[in-house]
């Protein structure tokens, strides 16, 4: 039984309690915030999750937490952020990607020069296989996600 419990514990993924999710949705409704679409709850949550993951990555890269005195005179430190718009399954999301002084930070969640997260690439391939032209795919993504994507970008997916 101990082995089974250990397997079950290791397979658990961090998911917020249902009460927290319900509270977020209720608050969004009461404030007139849409669940999906431009400026919707899912876009805001996606932004926060991505930025939190990126912050964790730079912390691992530098070896110390933000504002930690351990980072002083370490040879490399945080150097602000740069804004980047990434096309996600919930539409375009602008994230702040942290930078380091030495320029050696290579983010993995949203890589340098990456503009689309995986689900969007899969959708473009699926629509292409179904026979849609590049122009039709671009128009579809603009309608559904509010994101303008060039025919050239679609053809390189």
Keywords:
157 residues; alpha+beta; two-stranded antiparallel ribbon; 6 helices; 46% helix; 13% strand
Detailed description of the structure:
By secondary structure, the chain is of the alpha+beta class. The protein has one domain (2-115). It has a two-stranded antiparallel sheet. It has helices at 2-10, 18-30, 41-62, 118-129, 134-145, 151-155, and strands at residues 78-88, 91-100. It has 6 helices and 2 strands.
Write the layout of secondary structure elements.
Elements (H helix, E strand, L loop, with lengths): L1 H9 L7 H13 L10 H22 L15 E11 L2 E10 L17 H12 L4 H12 L5 H5 L2
Antiparallel strand pairs: 1-2
Tell me the span between the first and last alpha carbons.
Answer: 47 Å
* CA gyration radius, whole angstroms: 20 Å
Beta content comes to: 5-15%
Mean pLDDT: 81
């Amino acid at each position: 039984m101990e082995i089974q419990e250990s397997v079950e514990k290791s397979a658990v993924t961090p998911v917020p309690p249902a009460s927290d999710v319900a509270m977020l949705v209720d608050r969004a409704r009461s404030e007139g915030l849409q669940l999906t679409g431009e400026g919707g709850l899912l876009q805001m949550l996606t932004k926060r999750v991505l930025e939190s993951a990126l912050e964790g990555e730079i912390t691992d890269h530098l070896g110390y937490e933000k504002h930690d005195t351990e980072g002083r005179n370490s040879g490399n430190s945080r150097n602000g952020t740069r804004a980047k718009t990434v096309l996600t399954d919930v539409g375009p999301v602008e994230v702040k990607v942290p930078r380091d002084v030495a320029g050696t930070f290579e983010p993995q969640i949203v890589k340098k020069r990456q503009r689309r997260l995986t689900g969007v690439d899969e959708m473009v391939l699926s629509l292409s296989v179904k026979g849609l032209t590049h122009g039709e795919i671009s128009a579809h993504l603009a309608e559904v996600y509010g994101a303008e994507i060039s025919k050239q970008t679609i053809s390189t997916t």
